[in-house]
């Protein structure tokens, strides 16, 4: 078997059609969109077209789309930009315990500057309760930021309902849709959002380019200062090839979305059911049905997730220990903690995220490799001996 890549939540390969669309803008059409001459005008037209394409895909207006250097920058701009621009009206933000670090660490940054942040808990499936949002809103609240889909456990949040609550209260609403981009239909009106972040490399586009959707007539400050690019909202010469690539990738994803969702959901469930049946004392993390079509996050008692990953890698299988951002550190994932995965299972957590190249043969092969590896590692593991002795019948429910 050649290499099997099941880490599409960390990043995706660039689609060949996207590469083809980008190439001219790295080569003969290399102009700076701010230049007056024909090179410049050609690049400007490409950026304008890309903006129109993105707007159409999101049900937004072109002038509400701002290109950024990725999802992290879009998240930072929404949170810091809104907080700073509206500091005369309030000082309070609301988010959830399972957001990406691009949101959570930005909230911590704002707290250090005198803003207050309410971090809402989630239920055992990772869902935010819209009523919790309603109750947390005060007359000092400036912004609510709740993600559309979680990058570790795949849970899809009730964003439209949260949007309704925010609108009723007259509070601005941002969603980090980075992990949902390409996988779920994204319409800014249906979702009732004022700000939305996307990143191209999560939907078969290039790395280092993203978008911030910002509804007309919202007040927000830009993060970067300098030239007048992006209608003076994001200084710096535009990443023209990246922007062209992002728009091409988003349009392509929209075309493939429905058929891919059906195909991936079937593969995902085939994988999850087989693992749960074959690996004793394993559990699925995240919501059983309200989850991204490509996400399977599993926890096993009595195995170290890192050991599992390394062994799978030696067998040519690429997966992730819950979150790419926390792998390499021994900190247990904040998301798995927030959904209260039992302590004895949290260390043995592993995320498989399927993608366009994933086949049924690959899934079946990975199930075999995974079950065999887990059994082999458990046979040598004092953790596993402990788990079996502690409660032979099954999972230890300590809380
Ligand atoms: C990947 C990711 C980000 C960060 O996007 P970058 O383009 O890598 O900066 C933010 N939020 C979520 C949910 C993500 O999955």
Short recap of the structure:
This protein has 399 residues and is of the alpha/beta class.
* Name of the CATH class of the largest domain: Alpha Beta
Computed CA radius of gyration, to the nearest angstrom: 22 Å
Percentage of residues in DSSP E strands: 5-15%
CATH homologous superfamily of the largest domain, by name? Type I PLP-dependent aspartate aminotransferase-like (Major domain)
Count of discrete domains: 2
Overall pLDDT confidence: 94
> What gross morphology would you assign?
globular
Q: How many runs of DSSP E, i.e. beta strands? A: 12
* Straight-line N-to-C gap: 42 Å
Structural class, from helix and strand content?
alpha/beta
Report on the structure:
By secondary structure, the protein is of the alpha/beta class. It folds into 2 domains: about 5-10 and about 255-390, Aspartate Aminotransferase, domain 1, CATH 3.90.1150.10; about 15-255, Aspartate Aminotransferase, domain 2 (3-Layer(aba) Sandwich), CATH 3.40.640. Helices cover about 45% and strands about 15% of the residues. It has 14 helices and 12 strands. The protein has helices at about 15-25, 40-60, 70-85, 100-110, 130-135, 160-170, 190, 230, 240-280, 305-315, 335-340, 345, 360-380, 380-390, and strands at about 5, 65-70, 90-95, 115-120, 140-145, 170-175, 195-200, 210-215, 280-285, 295-300, 315-320, 350-355. Strands 2-8-7-6-5-3-4 form a 7-stranded mixed beta sheet, sandwiched between helices. Strand 5, helix 6 and strand 6 form a beta-alpha-beta unit. Helix 1 runs antiparallel to helix 9 (about 240-280). It is globular, with a radius of gyration of 22 Å. The relative contact order is 0.15. It binds pyridoxal-5'-phosphate (PLP). Pyridoxal-5'-phosphate (PLP) binds next to helix 3.
